[in-house]
Amino acid sequence: MALSDFDLVLFGGGGDLAMRKLLPALYNRERAKDIPPDARIVCVGRHDWTRESFIEEVNRSSRPHTASGSPDPAVWDAFCRRIDYVALDATDAASYERLVNAMRKPDANRPVTRVFYLATPPSLFAKICHNLSQSGLATPESRVVLEKPLGRDLASARQINAEVGRVFSESQIFRIDHYLGKETVQNLLALRFGNVLFEPLWRREWISDVQITIAEELGVGNRMDYYETAGALRDMLQNHLLQLLCIVAMEPPVSATPDAVRDEKLKVLRSLKRFTPNSIAQNVVRGQYRSGHVQGTPVPGYRKEPDANPSSRTETYVALKAEIDTWRWAGVPFYLRTGKRMADQLAEIVVRFKTIPHSIFAQPNRSFQANSLIIRLQPDEGLQMNLMAKTPGDGMRLRPVELELDFRETFKMPRMEAYERLLLDVLRGQLTLFMRADELEAAWEWVEPILEYWEQEGDEPMPYTSGTWGPPAASALIGRDGLQWREEALPEE
To answer: Which structural domains are found in the chain, ordered by start?
Structure first.
């Protein structure tokens, strides 16, 4: 669907997210000829830059992050001509007059979609929305995009929803989670609801367990100020991991319309078994990385990172066991984990099916690897199905084999990054891949008992060596159910 003319206003336009992700994503859509001729990008920031000095910063900080790293000069110049810069204090209502003057005036004969993207700390969301309203910039036709983190707990999430909701209606609010823009997540929906093969098996009678992993090799980097107040549970599990769980576990929606899909995701969040202090102690593991080696390179521990608190209790790793109290999923454990300074960088969903009930072959049941479906989100997007097959030659000996679908090899066409797809959806007004207010609050309601327990107990996160797969307690967590994390279950080469 072609885009209509738009003015996209990026608050935090000189920040890391805008330079590394948003502007490169918009350039890629420029290169693909998706952007209308008169569309404009207005970057807003605190720096007292002129437009010319801001474009110099874009060339220095954003250009290297485009798809090739060296964009087509003519296309890049055309893209930069769309960009304007407005210096203002987001908390000062009077300074919004500069933004008013930079915007195109409404014209009934030439309608322009107006989008405000708030790539700022959430503490500024309400003030920015209020000032947009006071300056007359927020109209019933405009849209606002909210970047995570959307609150620190249930109360702050509700407050953000209420304050932003005073200016924008729910249909105008796009709460972004970039994991939902990944190609493989879209293919998970296609796999489940576009094929008759898997849906009859997608239930407790056939599935043993589900593992969802987002692992990073990187440490906290230059985000210490943010990370020390957030931690892995707020930063990754409450949003990314829970959204992936919802897509795996939700019932078939009546259609692909936004509220039909989001209604089913909300039902999953409300069906998650609630934590108690006892179940948290048994089923949640938190850790913090210590010094070690990642890909052969020595790295410091979290408490030795620049500007770190030497006695910090912030978790850089979380693993937990979740249960969904529904007919489809009763008794099926969902294991979620995320961590920094891990052995590898990957994001994947592993759906493991039950083992065969009886072997008719001259080899014991324990030699049969359970069938599993692996949905890889990064670094390489694709699907893998693990089956048992006969080895060539005389006799009847079975061994595990892998059926691979590499999306880059199968579809010989340019691929969109997550932010490209989500920005297009915002500009088209398509809400399916964005969280609704009740979804956000339900997610916080489920994780909040964990945060409260950690605060009340005051215990230390378990140390784990950088370059490993996390604390040994995470292996024990899944091992109590007679299972293993996927990398532990792989046969040795």
So the answer is: 6-147 (3.40.50.720), 180-416+436-489 (3.30.360.10)
